[in-house]
Specification:
It comes from Cylindrobasidium torrendii FP15055 ss-10. GO terms for molecular function: glycylpeptide N-tetradecanoyltransferase activity. The chain is of the alpha+beta class. The chain folds into three domains: 2-46, no CATH class; 70-84 and 95-239, Gcn5-related N-acetyltransferase (GNAT) (Aminopeptidase), CATH 3.40.630.30; 249-452, 3-Layer(aba) Sandwich (Aminopeptidase), CATH 3.40.630.30. Helix content is 27%, strand content 24%. It contains twelve helices and 18 strands. It has helices spanning 14-25, 30-34, 37-53, 122-135, 150-157, 215-228, 259-264, 276-283, 301-312, 323-330, 402-422, 467-470; strands at residues 112-116, 144-146, 167-172, 178-191, 194-206, 235-239, 248-256, 293-295, 317-319, 336-340, 343-345, 349-355, 362-370, 373-375, 383-384, 386-394, 427-431, 446-457. The strands form three sheets. Strands 1, 3, 4, 5, 6, 7, 8, 9, 12, 13, 16, 17 and 18 form a 13-stranded mixed sheet that branches. Strands 2-14-15 form a three-stranded antiparallel sheet, covered by helices on one side. A two-stranded antiparallel sheet has the order 10-11. The structure holds tetradecanoyl-COA. Tetradecanoyl-COA is lined by residues 1, 70-73, 135-137, 199, 201-206, 211-217, 220, 223-224, 227, 233-235, 237, 239, 241, 243, 457-458.
């Protein structure tokens, strides 16, 4: 989510670091005497993440309230704040038979009505696009706002087996204007040892003029009812905001591609210790790819599916994609027509594979997607072209040699950056999930000031550590779901 978007600005304040350093030194033992500001800063950053995971007030955290203040979330089957890890993983509320699910839609305030959005109707798709492009997620100082394209939404909202009824709109009764939206799509996930069908919720949006009127809980309850009608009782979702209770939290990282534009639109800043020219030189990428990779094709679907399933076993929360889903996720967003400047008309996803020259088995793949943002109030550069790292997999084995594995991931992702650069993206974003922390700093990603919280609805499990919090000691143990 975009609360993420910008480069590092919001660090742990120096005064806090000095204060804690003073307190530690006052302990007087040898370890305390050797403590330094950098270690304290790092520890505080880690605490900040872990506290949010535990649902406590993180240092400088936003939107953190006591459970009782969450009028809506305190009524929902989600782990409540401060609850502590469960003894066993499992649902919070048992499933109910379809005929016991409320059959009629919830009653909206009198001026509004429900509307199921048909995303295959270009006019309705455009209505969703218009709502989101003016009212969806902005960063904390309203400089950037996600601008999901109609092509993107058509791709993201219609995976195999999707339910039209899960695309829920709210319209003004009198003029039919779309003022609220929430979407669900089915997704089979594994959380630690349990595999279950869930609903992936995204694109919750209420028109700016109708905020704080409790329409969001209505949208959430209505989509929940419609998901229950399909016999599905769990959901997965992400948000920049903290509500009860994150199962994990990851941090955004940003790799500048078009450095001068990023500085001009105030996405990045030139630190006092360097110059713009030096930053441009440092961020320049080579022209040639390192690995013999090529775009994924239809014939690769099975190979990619097998490699993906095998690779993802190392993470604790992952999607299970069948062949149709692999095809949809990695191929169906490739756009149409000829490639011009690294992209096709309407291209949403880029997927590249490497194959063994002898066996022709797929040995690696990576993918990223295009999610532009409006640069609010900027006429020279109205749009920030951002690529986001999506899924990847490699047959390089961590178990065999951790160093070789890390080097290999670095080369693979370095090629992803080169492909994105050729397709004229301005920045390449990635979260601290999967094994990303293994290559982020080496590939010159900078830490962003945004965190993304991961949530499960009606499922209890102990918190999954965000990779940044656990470091590489436990690489491969955390989140393996990438949400759009
Ligand atoms: C089994 C199937 C289950 C399916 C459902 C699973 C759950 C899915 C959950 C949704 C996953 C969404 C994933 C995404 O799309 S995350 C993206 C969310 N969208 C935006 O940030 C876009 C810009 N903002 C807006 O459009 C509005 O501010 C929204 C619509 C977000 C809230 O509208 P408004 O500002 O007018 O507020 P209200 O007066 O109506 O309602 C206030 C209540 O709503 C709770 N709230 C606010 N924001 C969020 C949020 N992002 N996740 C969960 N809850 C949220 C809030 O804590 C409070 O409850 P409580 O604190 O008092 O208890």
């Amino acid at each position: 989510m975009l609360s993420a978007l910008k480069g590092s600005k919001e660090e742990i304040p120096d005064e806090l670091v000095s204060q804690v350093l003073g307190e530690v030194r006052a302990r007087g033992d040898e370890e305390a005497q050797n403590a330094n500001a950098a270690e304290i800063r790092q520890a505080l950053e880690t605490m900040k993440i872990m506290d949010v995971v535990r649902g406590k007030a993180g240092l400088g955290g936003h939107n953190l309230k006591d459970m009782g203040e969450h009028k809506f979330w305190s009524t929902q089957p989600v782990p409540q704040l401060g609850e502590g890890p469960p003894i066993d993983d499992g649902y919070i509320e048992p499933p109910v038979p379809r005929d016991q699910v409320q059959q009629e839609g919830y009653t909206l305030p009198k001026d509004f009505e429900w509307s199921t959005i048909d995303i295959n109707d270009p006019n309705q798709l455009k209505e969703v696009y218009d709502l989101l492009s003016l009212h969806y997620v902005e960063d904390h100082d309203a400089s950037f706002r996600f601008q999901y394209t109609a092509d993107f939404l058509r791709w993201a909202l219609a995976p195999p087996g999707y339910f039209k009824e899960w695309h829920v709109g709210v319209r003004v009764k009198s003029n039919k204007k779309l003022v609220g939206f929430i979407a669900g799509v089915p997704l089979t996930i594994r959380v630690r040892k349990n595999v279950f069908v869930s609903c992936e919720i995204n694109y919750l949006c209420v028109h700016k003029k109708l905020r704080s009127k409790r329409l969001a809980p209505m949208l959430i309850k209505e989509v929940t009812r419609r998901v229950h009608l399909e016999g599905i009782f769990q959901a997965i979702y992400t948000a920049g905001t903290v509500v009860p209770t994150p199962v994990s939290v990851c941090r955004y990282n940003h790799r500048p591609l078009n450095t001068s534009k990023l500085v001009s639109i105030r996405f990045s800043f030139v630190p006092r210790t360097t110059t713009l020219a030096r930053m441009i030189r440092t961020n320049k990428l080579p022209d040639a790819l390192t690995l013999p990779i090529r775009e994924m094709e239809e014939r690769d679907v099975e190979g990619v599916a097998n490699l993906f399933a095998q690779y993802m076993t190392r993470f604790d929360m992952i999607p299970h994609f069948n062949l149709d889903e692999v095809k949809h996720q990695f191929l169906s967003g490739r756009g149409t027509g000829d490639v011009v400047h690294g992209r096709r008309e309407g291209q949403v996803t880029w997927t590249y594979v490497a194959e063994d020259p002898e066996t022709h088995k797929i040995t690696d793949f990576f993918s990223f997607y295009s999610l532009p943002s409006t640069v609010i109030g900027n006429t020279e550069y109205p749009v920030l072209e951002a690529a986001y790292l999506y899924y990847y997999a490699s047959s390089a084995s961590w178990e065999k040699s951790k160093e070789e594995y890390k080097q290999h991931l670095k080369v693979l992702m370095g090629d992803a950056l080169i492909v994105a650069d050729k397709a004229r993206f301005d920045v390449f974003n990635a979260l601290t999930l999967m094994d990303n922390v293994e290559f982020l700093s080496d590939l010159k990603f900078g830490k962003g000031d945004g965190y993304l919280n991961f949530y499960l609805y009606n499922w209890r499990t102990a918190a999954l550590a965000g990779m940044e919090a656990i470091g590489d000691r436990e690489a491969g143990r955390g989140v393996g779901v990438v949400m759009l």
